[in-house]
Amino acid sequence: MKSKELSYNNPFFNFTSLIRRIWTAEAVSESTESMLEVQKLSVVRDERCLFKNLSFSVPNGQLLYVRGRNGAGKTTLIRTLCGFIRPGAGEIRWNGSAIGQDATEFRRSLAYIGHENGIKGDLTVLENLVFYRTLHNVSARTDALDGLEQLGVARLAHIPCRFLSAGQKRRVALSRLHGARAKLWLLDEPFAALDASGQRTAADLLAGHLAKGGIGVVTSHQDADWGPVNLQELHLEDSQRWVRFSRCSNATCCWCTEIRRILRRL
Predict the structure, then answer these.
(1) Nearby residues of 230 by Cβ (< 8 Å), 6 or more positions away
(2) Has this prediction a pTM greater than 0.90?
């Protein structure tokens, strides 16, 4: 059977719409069988093919731990799974359908935390979290306080975020996952800037999500102790990955033209 092509029609790839609606809608029943499937995925960035013919599946209750050195394509993979990056080839399927085919259902099932924490420095910790949860139609203040307590930053609730350390900001970002109704968590380097205690707390939060039938995809370039979870690892260095460099196909590219002019003088 011929694979269906990914659809990138609006509103799915309207970035603002995607972010605003990622956490909306009702919770997916824990008994519902879900599956994230990637089939022969290839992604090219800046004339480099970061990975080619990448395939895997992640069922209910399982964590996919994506590992690799810096520049291997971990962040690119996560952002591609979210729909932020168009793959050069292949297909991403959620519950049997291409993510662009039923974009609304996929957005409802997705929670994403990237490298950036997504918090406003002039707002307090609690204000940031209450605003975020209100924006995404999640029970706001009480659950927000519970989330801050779980991540160990409840004592900072009324402190403007600009005064927090990098590790404390990361804890605030991760506290958004507390009470999240999304079935699929895509987390890019969630342990970044966290101390040992923070890493253990984040791992426990993820383990609780998996125990309820959730699915997680997490990237890291460092070793991590995930505890007794159903885990599979993906090493991007070991995938069918190749790199090529070539001249810019745009002959009028001013940057490339200037760089080549300088190089000819060397």
Answers:
(1) 61, 62, 63, 210
(2) no
